[in-house]
Write a structure and sequence with these properties.
The chain is mainly alpha-helical. 65% of the residues lie in helices and 3% in strands. It binds zinc ion.
Length: 358
């Protein structure tokens, strides 16, 4: 009796302390971005990153499986005694168990990464006028074709340690250049089996519960590399989806590797084409038909590859993630990814004028 009582008290104490600290974090950080920058990002997150990255760098498999296994085991240990014959108040006990897991994960999420949303970082740039947009689209097709001509080989898989490290260094280097201090030395791992993330129509994810970036190895290689770079942006403390796309583009486009330069130009071009379709579907169809053969063939191969993976839970991901982004101040929801277009155009403009982005 004493043992059970002591355990319950200990669990309740941890839960109360954890949720209390998280509520305090909300009050402290979301009311004052400078404080979030100084106390959360510069201190707590930086220390967490260097310790966790140091401890887990050697692990050759995706830690997401360890997290899922522990979660399932914990739930089994918790649920099993509740369904023994003669146990009363099952509904209440299940509700309590689920609440504990949910509250613990919410606290874990915000302290392990989520308070980065409170940092004072605006990625708002002026909207792009039609003329400027179509000029950029035309120039980008030319840029992409030029890099494609220099390309003789694309790796089939970008999850090898050497490739991942080069992409990470490129992202960290670019962030430093524009005055954003990347935190730690995170890992990015392939989430096998292929197609697991694609079930949710998701290319990759930064998972705060394991402190790692994940990408789906079923993706076309050109998408794999871009996704890895994008997720590193998140791991380095950037929350904005458009900004992570922009960082991935700028970092890879400055690489000494021609395949990574093509990854950058090709993926940015895809966003421009999507934007063209949104602005003027007729013009998009004409443009698509007139694209140079090499680009059209790469685009078709990518679409074929991705279409081979079913995405039965896309609606669920879309609904939950859009709501999550809006709850954390990204009011455009999933449209935020397309912020890359305005950011790249703005960046080119201020770069040509010798200004700074931040
Ligand atoms: Zn993202």
């Amino acid at each position: 009796m004493f043992g059970i009582g002591a355990k319950m008290t200990w669990r309740s104490f941890c839960l109360t302390l954890g949720s209390g600290l998280t509520l305090m974090g909300f009050a402290l950080f979301f009311s004052n971005g400078e404080r979030a920058e100084r106390i959360y990002f510069e201190t707590s997150y930086r220390v967490y990153r260097s310790v966790w990255d140091g401890l887990t760098a050697w692990v050759p498999f995706a830690l997401v499986w360890v997290w899922l296994a522990v979660l399932v085991m914990w739930l089994a240990v918790w649920i099993f005694p509740i369904f023994k014959p003669g146990v009363s108040g099952r509904g209440q006990k299940v509700l309590k168990g689920v609440s504990i897991v949910a509250v613990a994960h919410l606290s874990w999420f915000y302290w392990a990464w989520g308070f980065n949303y409170a940092r004072p970082m605006s990625w708002e740039v002026p909207a792009v006028a039609q003329g400027l947009f179509y000029d950029e689209l035309k120039a980008q097709i030319a840029r992409t074709v030029k890099v494609r001509e220099d390309l003789s080989h694309i790796p089939g898989f970008y999850g090898q340690r050497g490739d991942v490290e080069q992409i990470r260094e490129a992202v960290a280097g670019f962030m430093q250049n524009i005055g954003l201090q990347p935190a730690g030395s995170p890992q990015c791992r392939a989430f096998f089996p292929s197609g697991t993330l694609l079930l949710f129509a998701t290319s990759g994810v930064y998972l705060p519960f394991t402190g790692e970036c994940l990408f789906d190895p079923g993706l076309h290689p050109l998408s794999q590399a871009f996704t890895i770079a994008h997720e590193f942006g998140h791991a380095f403390g950037i929350t904005d989806e458009g900004a992570c796309n922009f960082i991935a583009y700028a970092a890879c486009s400055q690489s000494s590797r021609v395949d990574l330069r093509y990854v950058a130009e090709f993926n940015y071009l895809r966003y421009l084409l999507a934007e063209c379709r949104r602005r003027n579907p007729e013009r998009y169809r004409e443009l698509q038909a007139s694209l140079p053969e090499a680009l059209r063939s790469d685009l078709e191969e990518l679409h074929r590859r991705h279409a081979a993976f079913p995405a039965p839970f896309e609606w669920l991901r879309s609904m939950l993630y859009s709501a999550f982004l809006k709850a954390n101040g990204q009011h455009e929801g999933e449209r935020a990814y397309h912020g890359i277009v305005a950011l790249v155009i703005h960046y080119r403009k201020i770069n040509s004028e010798g200004g700074d982005l931040h």
